[in-house]
Amino acid sequence: MCNFIMNIPRIITDNPFRVLGITSNAGKKELLANKSRISAYSRLGKSVSFSLDLTSLLPPPKRQLSDVQAAEALINRPEDRLKYALFWFMSSIPSDIEGIEWLAKGNVSQAESYFWGHRGVSSSVNLACVEIIRRNIEGYLNRITPIVSHQMLRENFIREICGENISFGEDFFIESILSTLIENFSLSEVSSAVDELDSELFREKFLSLAGAIPLQTIENALSRHNKNNNNDPEISYQEGMELARECRQAVNELRALHLENELTASLLLNKLAEKILNYAEAYFWNSNSGNKLYSARNLLAKAKDFAASDKLKEKCDAALAEMEEGDKCDSYADRLIKETDAFDPDNATLEEIEEFVKNTLPIINELKEATFGLEKFKLYAQSSNAVVTLAVGAAVSYANKNCQPNRGQDIRPKLKRLLDIFAQLVPLPKSSKCQSWFEKNYSIIKGNYEAVGNAQQRSSSPGLLAFCLKYWWVFLIIFIIMANA
């Protein structure tokens, strides 16, 4: 006994003719008889079996009343009846009946010998069905193609199945065969078999049908991932990875069919790649994860792999280069945050303010070089603005506490050092509000510095006059000597 129970295609196991327990060319009388028998057994709570169940080869058919009704509906129209008949057994001559009996016993080779005994439409279909049970697509196509390609055999098959003369062309049969094979086997299996058949008509029809499936898969995936989650980096990453996973097999199928460069396919592949690229950028530029470059690189690799155009592949490379530079920016930002966190502007000494500016300006300049021309250039501007705000705030606080003229001390050197700090901050970019605040405080400290200088000059003038009045006679003697000389 042969064991073909595993991996039998559904077009065989669930074929509506099998569910109804009849051959594909059975008449209405046999159909009605089987339906009555199934209904009677069902009322008794029992299952019914027929010789065409072929349970020595196939798993038992599903035969509830609902299954029977659905099976009958599937073969109501002539075109549907023909489609399923291409994948089920016929009984036109005695050798067909004997061959089917041997199949029911599980003896495939003996059944084939009977089918081979008569070279006609029914024997060709029966041999083709045996090949499908074996999952031999190439063998099936070799058996069924003569019926499809020859008008007389095709007309005989239509008449046997439908009981009347209806016109269906070769294209209809090829499309019915290929669409059913694609539904029941992998695209690579069907593609290999079609290639071996060496039929340009079959090949063209196969590419048209087979290419539509992965294209639709990708279209559906893009529709499901049409929401923008740019504000949540983790969702962006998950969406990108999920989209790539859903489309991977479809992309591989397009490539196996050599359709990736066909216009419709290439446009869709570029759309898919662009979407994953967008997810990668949304994730990287909004994430605070320490591993974000690694994760974003993973997404970009998938986007580049899916891309059909060289231009889009280059765009993926450029995005990665920006992210690598951006990752450097983040390291600068971390250093800057460390400096600002350690700085207390309200209580900083003059030396601490000078040290803060000394430490942060190189980081700001490095950040400027790293972010030039990148989307993240704003990080440089924001960081610069923050440093200016802290340094100026600290300088103003220090000046208010330690640079008041009424303290009776020489504050001019301190004010000069504060002005030097402001001078170092002048080149840094600032927001308009920060710039205005900066200029205001710079003017105040500069004004105080100049005022202190003027006051010191005025205070030194009365001392000189008093000295001259006290020693007037010395000056008089010097004058007389010089006059008589």
Provide a concise account of the structure shown.
It is built from 22 helices and no strands. It has 485 residues and is mainly alpha-helical.
Can you put this structure into words, describing what you see?
This protein has 485 residues and is an all-alpha fold. It is 75% helix and 0% strand. The chain is rod-shaped, with a radius of gyration of 45 Å. The N and C termini lie far apart (151 Å). Mean pLDDT is 85; it is low at 463-469.
Number of helices: 22
Structural class estimated from helices and strands = mainly alpha
Approximate helicity band: over 70%
Q: How would you sum up the major sheet?
A: none
Low-confidence stretches: 463-469
Radius of gyration: 45 Å
Task: Based on Cα principal axes, name the global outline.
Answer: rod-shaped
β-strand percent reads under 5%
What integer is the average pLDDT?
Answer: 85
Q: How many runs of DSSP E, i.e. beta strands?
A: 0
Report the order of strands and helices.
HHHHHHHHHHHHHHHHHHHHHH
Alpha carbon gap, first and last residue: 151 Å
Task: Provide tags for this entry.
485 residues, mainly alpha, 22 helices, rod-shaped
Topology, element by element:
Elements: H1 10-13, H2 16-20, H3 28-43, H4 65-74, H5 78-85, H6 94-104, H7 108-116, H8 121-133, H9 137-149, H10 151-162, H11 170-184, H12 187-197, H13 200-224, H14 233-256, H15 263-286, H16 292-306, H17 310-342, H18 350-371, H19 377-402, H20 412-425, H21 432-470, H22 472-484
